[in-house]
Sequence to fold (913 residues):
Amino acid sequence: MTMMVGLLAAMAIVLRASSGSAQTTETAAQQAFKEDVHATAGLTCAACHQGAPATYAALPRTAIAPLCGKCHSDPAYMKGFDPQVRVDQYTQYLTSAHGKRMSGGETRVATCSDCHGAHGIRRVRDARSSVAPLNVVQTCAKCHDDPVRMAAFGSRATPVKDWSASVHAAALLKRGDTSAPTCSTCHGSHGATPPGVTQVANVCAQCHVREAELFRASPKKAIFDQIDQPECLACHGNHRVEHPTDAWVGFKEPAVCAMCHDERMKGASTITATQKGLADMTAKIGAAEVVLTRAERAGMLVDDGRAALRDAREHEIHSRVLVHAFATKPFADMADPGVRAAQESQTVGERALHELQVRRRGLFAATVVIVGFLVTLWFKIRRLGGAGGEPHA
Amino acid sequence: MASDVFVARLNSGAPGRRGFLNWLLGAWAAGVAGSILYPVIRYLIPPEIPEASTQSVNAGKASALALNSGRIVPFGSVPAILVRTAAGDYRAFSATCTHLACTVQYRPDLEHIWCACHNGHYDLTGRNIAGPPPRPLEAYQVNVANDELIVSKKP
Amino acid sequence: MTSYQLRAWLGERVPVADIVEALRRKRVPEHRYSIWYYFGGMTLFFFIVQVFTGGLLLLYYRPSAGEAYESVQFIMTRVPFGWLIRSIHAWSANVMVATALAHLFSALFLHAYRRPREITWVSGAFLLLLILAFGFTGYLLPWNELSFFATRVGTDMAGTVPGVGHFIVRFMRGGRDVTGATLTRLFGVHVAILPAIATALLGLHLFLVQRHGMSVPPSVWEESRRTGRATASIPFLPDFALRDLFAWTVGLALLAGLAAFYPWELGVKADPFASAPAGIRPEWYFLWAFQTLKYVPASVFGVNGELLVVAALGIGAALMVVLPFVVPDRPHARRVLVWFAAAVLAYMALLTFLALRAQGGGPTP
Fold:
């Protein structure tokens, strides 16, 4: 028992308290196991541990994955709990950077329990699970954000703050979109491996289909292949995928085009046209928004204008996607109707403001007539002077 | 005031002036009546613009839509997608992707609805089957009358 | 045919000569409170405006949950001068409530309800309740968020009545909850049932006013008795009628100005499944009752607080209707009534003020 505690404590120091290895006593392990998915499925301690409880010992780290795999790779067995369940995790693990090293006897790499825990394992869809979308980044970061640990493998640490600054993190954390990509979305979970230069575009294309299609059909594709540039990463980076801005197109900081292009090179006209198209559309949409808001504040209904502006915004989004065609025509085909829609929206707003002027002028004219009538009526009443006269009956 | 000019005249009590006062009063009254009647008559004339009803829209000729194809039609101020399945059924949904509000499209090769922005897939009942969309598309009703497709909100 | 012959021909077929003669001979007392005589006429004017603009709105309005909001939007944006007609209808409704209240309180403070005008008062009191009912039923018709939830709260109050409460709520809503069925129901009440009742009552009210003539306040009457001088008066035709016309035209100018500078808002379309937005409120003339509900504890001596308010409002309305029969025609009783009415008025004003301050904005759009 003391030996087990000592060993576990040593492991805990090495692994820096993963949720699974924190159980230092039997009671703590039992406590945690109560809510474990295996306990819910009717399994007991003896499913993993052999012998009497008093003699339970920590498993050697190299033995953990094979132990889990014993059941989780057995389709016939697993089907008894969930007919849809996958059984390839162990096979996947063996292909991962973690699994390969572990098989080679390197025990400082992650195995099942480092990510899933040991006695308190929950389903991925349970928000409290260490591998649920909102938690998985912190789980990976336990090791990958640690420069000392990663240096042992000749790698640099991947700071979590890079991902946290990304548009993906914003989608997950700010908007609560649990389908937004985390570490495992791009690197895989059980088969976690960094995608290679040639594969990275395929990873991005899982969600950014349209951009990938456009890019592959564009002249850039062949050039990037030639100079061995990773397709998406060249401009967007990898972990720190920031929200792109229109200023990225151009020749001056922070333009990403400027990394390779300048004004004198071939293709400069395409860059200039795209830059101008984007700027034009943004300006027009901004102007339309101002006019519409003014009209609305004045109490006018400008739903047509709003609809046109929505249309313009959608064209703006698509135009930004079409930047990836790296050609003038497809971009202009999308951007021009957007500019027109924004212009139409502005016209609607201006017409509403004009209409307001017309209303006020109409009211003024009517008021003049009414006041004229009232004044004349006043004289008429004064002239009648009916007061006094006969006594009230 | 327009009538201020007449003050002196009006205040003199000669009988001829009374006639003038009545005439002036009548003229102003006609003006007031006119400024009431003008908007009312304009209001009564139905506007040229077709009514913007978002309850149902005419989505064009049924025969113009080929088998296994789709079309985006305006439904009020928002887009709707009209699909003719490979089996020949007509289906209609809101075309606004439930993920980030892009407009979806029909993919004849996949035989279902697809959103280009983030690779969201919906089946032919509007259910989100793959990709990031969190919810199904709102389904509309399609009726065919005299080869005209009528798309309407489900009651 | 000469004009004389024409008049004779018409007079035989439309025999109103004696009524015209009576009107021609009718006189209206003229004294320091005469100004209050005009509020009844103003209310009538706004009522006519309501009937007129309401009829126009019916040409384009569609009373169903799916189309009501869109059709009002259509009126406001597409129909020429639709914004004017709708804004005038909405503004006139509000101004009418104000003038009707002014009319009621002036009749009360000038003691015009005394014999033989009891029925005039009762019909007027019912007309005021009808105006409030018009306001309540009309509020929901644009089917926007604010009115949807206000109607839900408003109808819910009736549920506190013991025994029949739930039935009343169901009856008013046309179902268990506020739905399209409620809209159709309130629409029918607003444009057919209430106008029919109001027209009949208004006919009676106007007939009685014409037959009885204007009431002279006891103080003025007393004064004239003391001095031995008859109360001054002016002929109804044309003097008083022209003054009425003057007031009406001022009312018209007011409506046009309000509509042009503050077009009535449409708001957001009601979504029965959305949660109630912040700052839902009824129309301003119900605010004092709304605010009272907030102050009354949930339970007072074991009785539901809301029920107490509903009961108090019911008793108040009943007292208002039967007022001429419970106030004896004695100076002392009249003084008590004046103080009591002043207290009620002050209470309503104070709570309306508190409600407005609580929501940090005026009741205007």
